[in-house]
Specification:
The complex is a heterodimer.
Chain A lengths: L2 E3 L3 E5 L4 E8 L6 E6 L6 E6 L3 E5 L2 E6 L4 E6 L8 E8 L5 E3 L3 E6 L1
Parallel strand pairs in A: 2-11
Antiparallel strand pairs in A: 1-3, 3-8, 4-5, 4-9, 6-7, 7-8, 9-10, 9-11
Chain B lengths: L3 E4 L2 E4 L5 E7 L6 E7 L6 E7 L5 E2 L8 E7 L2 E6 L8 E7 L10 E2 L3 E5 L1
Parallel strand pairs in B: 2-11
Antiparallel strand pairs in B: 1-3, 3-8, 4-5, 4-9, 5-6, 7-8, 9-10, 9-11
Classes of the chains: A mainly beta, B mainly beta.
Chain lengths: 109, 117
């Protein structure tokens, strides 16, 4: 079966760095995506990795290792507005998104 | 970038009412649209995949007679929750696939919060 695992909840301090991990086992792989979702809102796209390595976009970076079935989202200089759920999703061989359950990130002052 | 418009954003209605939610791709043609449901503090759950001009593909456990999906054009898909009951209260989100955009697999609407009294 297809499976994506990520921690349920994480807590970090404003101004700090946090890394959210995601491991996956899917039928094929056509890319891994990270989305941010604030409560009561639709997900918003953060990043896309299809090749191994690190993709940096401002305060957010995403890393992928296809051989390990592993990705992480790195958030630097945390701000209170970063409190949200972060969803890891993999595009499988049928180009269907397989979603993780999401990681709720709590930022404390 | 690609925009998906979802309407209405909020619906409150009596039990037994049927509710229609629209999902439109505004600046691209979407042969495939997706309907998700999300209960509080839970992740997105794919309900069905909607293909233009053909029947929707429903996920296991989703009643196709309860959740009617129509995708009659390349820019519009609708989800109708028939005879809604309080347990159908949820956040419904649509997304559309833009084949011309390889950087994002799906573009999301803003969601519809459905509350059945």
């Amino acid at each position: 079966g297809q499976n994506i695992d990520q921690p349920t909840e994480m807590t970090a301090t404003e101004g700090a760095i946090v890394q959210i991990n995601c491991t996956y086992q899917t039928s094929g792989f056509n890319g891994l995506f990270w989305y941010q979702q604030h409560a009561g809102e639709a997900p918003t796209f953060l990043s896309y990795n299809v090749l191994d390595g690190l993709e940096e976009k401002g305060r957010f970076s995403s890393f992928l290792s296809r051989s390990k079935g592993y990705s992480y989202l790195l958030l630097k200089e945390l701000q209170m507005k970063d409190s949200a759920s972060y969803l890891c999703a993999v595009l499988d061989s049928n180009y269907q998104l397989i979603w993780g359950a999401g990681t709720k990130l709590i930022i404390k002052p | 970038g690609a925009v998906v418009s979802q309407h209405p954003s909020w619906v409150i209605c009596k039990s037994g009412t049927s509710v229609k939610i629209e999902c439109r791709s505004l600046d691209f043609q979407a042969t495939t649209m997706f309907w998700y449901r999300q209960f509080p503090k839970q992740s997105l759950m794919l309900m069905a995949t909607s293909n233009e001009g053909s029947k929707a593909t429903y996920e296991q456990g989703v009643e196709k007679d309860k959740f009617l999906i129509n995708h009659a054009s390349l820019t519009l898909s609708t989800l109708t929750v028939t005879s809604a009951h309080p347990e159908d209260s949820s956040f419904y989100i649509c997304s559309a696939r833009d084949l011309g955009d390889e950087s994002q697999p799906q573009h999301f609407g803003d969601g519809t919060r459905l509350s059945i009294l």
